[in-house]
Amino acid sequence: MPIFLLNSLFLLIALALEISGLLMLVRDDLPGSSILSALLLHISACALIGLVLPRTINSFNNVFTPITFIFFFSIAFFIPALGVLGLVFAVVPGLRPIKTTTISPIHFNSIRAFSELPASFSADHESRSISLENLLCSQNPEKRLHAVYATLKLDDKSAIPLLRMALRDSVDDIRLLAYALIDRKEQRISERIECARQRLTTSLSANSQYLYRCIVKDYWELAHLGLVEGETLNYVLDKACEYAQLGLQHFPNDRGLHLQYAKLLLRLKITNQAYDEFKSAETLGVDRKKLLLYYAEIGFLQRRYSEVKRYMKELNLITASPQIHGATRFWREQAVADD
Fold it and tell me: How many whole angstroms separate alpha carbon 162 and alpha carbon 156?
């Protein structure tokens, strides 16, 4: 550590100057010129301490401001001898170098050329015990990189928001990795859609019903997971509605297509038609309990709050998703208050 050794040499010089000045002061036959010389030696030692000691600390710790010169100079100057000795022998031995962490650059030939989870980057105990969102906010780039790789173990619905968060990372490799993983997920779904569309043009009618469902489901997944945004999102929703309508023209009694089409219409805020499609799905055999939340959402969008209370009151809190417990309790309390 050459810089540290050089700083140490200057500190030793400062100590020598301070000790020399001190020895001049303790002499019995002290002429006036010796007092001035001792003062100059003391000031020189204090100046060296003020300049060198902060730089010595800065070589170990990433904190330094010019005001530190005044701080250390004042301590050394106003506490003759003991100030310099105390600073050197108390501060310097306590310094510990900060461990810096670096990440190796990520090299790949294709943006989708990843295995599901490389062994060297598998999620460790810390990644499992701390939320990935907190890890992505870590100051340590290696932890953020581990968090991005750990999203490969999550379902797409949980992984996509975290990957979009990683797109704003300050490290280029982390941003590029997050983009590649999002792009790979989008490409995988797009390839399924294209494959189903090609099969649809040549398949028998018995298989067409299943293919229509798959195409609509995959388009919905692209939109629902947040893999597409802006105009691309509108295009995806329009294509999903198009294939849902085509499927219902050929298979009007397919409750799955009615349900998928209803979700799309609700996403587009076409509430009246969405309600009709949900009712068609219910008539064809979809459990009403699975549709109550959709009915409640339609009622809320149409500002028919009495219907929202009625539908939420029908929900079974035991089987309902934990995410909606708060909303369910709120609307139930409103219904009880009205009664």
Answer: 10
CATH topology of domain 130-197: Leucine-rich Repeat Variant (1.25.10)
The model's pLDDT over 188-197, given as tens digits with 9 standing for 90+, comes to 999 999 999 9
Question: What is the rounded distance in angstroms from the CA atom of residue 81 to the CA atom of residue 70?
Answer: 17
DSSP letter at 65 equals -
Token pair in block for residue 119: 């062994």
Three-state secondary structure call for residue 183: helix
In the three-class reduction of DSSP (H, G, I as helix; E, B as strand; rest coil), residue 321 is classed as: coil
pTM, rounded to two decimals = 0.56
Euclidean distance between CA atoms 132 and 145, whole angstroms: 10
* Contacts with 108 (C-beta within 8 Å, 6 or more apart), sequence order: 114, 180
CA–CA dist 69, 105 (Å, integer): 39
- Using CA atoms of 118, 121, 122, 123 in order, give the dihedral in degrees to the nearest 10: -150
Is there a contact between 135 and 143 (Cβ–Cβ < 8 Å)? yes
The H-or-E segment that residue 38 falls in is helix 32-58
For the chain, what are the domain ranges? 2-94, 130-197
Tokens of 2: 């050459």
User: pLDDT: is 13 or 144 the higher one?
Assistant: 144
pLDDT above 50: residue 115: no
- Tokens describing residue 134: 């907190």
pLDDT band at 109 (very low <50, low <70, confident <90, very high): very low
- 94: which DSSP letter? G
Per residue in 282-319, pLDDT (tens digit) is 999 999 988 988 999 999 999 988 888 888 888 766 55
- Yes or no: say if 113 and 176 are a contact pair by the CB < 8 Å rule: no
Shortest CA distance to 12 belongs to which of 125, 89, 77, 80? 89
